[in-house]
Amino acid sequence: MIKAEVAIIGGTGFYDPKIMDDIQEITINTEFGETGLLVGTVSKIPVVFLARHGSRHGVPPHRVNYKANISALKQLGVTRVLATTAVGSLQESLPQGSLVIIDQFIDFTKNREDTFYNGEDGVIHTDFTEPYCPQLRTSLKKVMSEKEIIFSDGGTYICTEGPRYETPAEIKAFALWGADVVGMTGVPEVTLAREAGLCYANLSLVTNFAAGISPHFLTHKEVVDIMREKISVIREIFTGVVVSLTEERDCRCSHKEDYSLG
Ligand code: HPA
User: Fold this and answer.
1) Residue 144 pLDDT
2) What is residue 210's DSSP assignment?
3) pLDDT of 256 higher than 80
């Protein structure tokens, strides 16, 4: 059985890892469905790559099988996940091309399978005071600082159901709630990862100003074009993080014993 401790989840415009050698395409069967993945190495370190929307962007955000994806990573022995998402910006200070290490989220999704805990093991409430792994966030910061890549250290991601974009009124409301960026795929990926005891970090790329802030109508083409422009930087950052990770996890991400059973 192939094993890897680190996974990269590629979002819109990131379907080909490019940074991996000895790539093998595999399918993992989970109790929630099948997931197709690539396994290979980055500087001899085993890494799994998962294209969230499928290898050709065939799966829309609200139809991604997040539970199968996280279960498949768990089966492969993954303990750490580096995810990317394309986002719209709600802040003038975050123009197109900005990179944000997300540290909080607001869940505005409506209709997703979003937990592994449906009562079979009792009632389990997972702590989300620190939704994204602090150790992985620190690694991202360190690598980007060393490479002199400009980034925002922290930001609140609001996840909408999609696949439609938001109305300007929604964006105004989200900004009042404290959201900095908006996307359609960050949740429940982050919550399922924590339920599964995985370390998870999200590096978001601003591809557009959100509806009503943008001077023009939104298009998927704009999102993909900006992602294409910046994808090599994201690949470089993730490579840097993969090679710099120490063996020990010093965070609480896997501390399932802390979750309340009732
Ligand atoms: N809204 C939601 N998701 C997105 C956006 C947006 O403006 N841009 C990229 N993903």
Assistant:
1) 98
2) P
3) no
* 13 Cβ below 6 A of ligand 1: no
Whole-number Å distance, alpha carbon 90 to ligand 1 midpoint, is: 10
* CA nearest ligand 1 atom 6, residue: 88
Specify burial of residue 138 (Cβ count, 10 A radius: 0-12, 13-18, 19+): middle
Q: Is the CB of 8 under 6 A from ligand 1?
A: no
Lowest-confidence region among 36-50, 63-77, 247-261: 247-261
Which pLDDT band, with edges at 50, 70 and 90, does 240 fall under?
Answer: very high
For residue 88 and ligand 1, the question of a CB distance below 6 A is answered with yes
Residue ranges of domains in the chain, CATH in brackets: 6-261 (3.40.50.1580)
Nearest CA to ligand 1 atom 7: 88
User: Does the C-beta of 183 come closer than 6 Å to ligand 1?
Assistant: yes
State residue 246's pLDDT score. 77
Winning range, highest mean pLDDT, from 10-14, 79-83, 251-255: 79-83
How far apart CA 196 and CA 246 sit, in angstroms, is: 21
Rounded Cα–Cα distance for residues 141 and 214 (Å): 28
Determine whether the shortest distance from the Cβ of 86 to ligand 1 is under 6 A: yes
| Cα–Cα distance, 99 to 96 (Å, whole number) | 9
